[in-house]
Design goal:
single chain, mainly beta, globular
Amino acid sequence: FCISYFGNNIYNGLIFIKRDLNIKNNDIVAVTTNNTSSPIVTLRRVIKVGEITQLIDIQNIYAPINVGSSEEEYKILGKAIYRLCEFD
């Protein structure tokens, strides 16, 4: 599937996501929260340190999310496999 995104930079576009949960270190994944009435999908980089998995904001604006230790529950939808950009 694909999602459209709007970056904080000068570009926006489409990200193609593969519903593959075989996630490796440094993969970019589409993540959504489970406990909101209108879920938002964000893109995060996966960093694995031992048994801990962190979801890092790819633009380094927001704080990392420690999977399994947060108040909010996050669901990984799949990993990004292709990006199609449109520059303003």
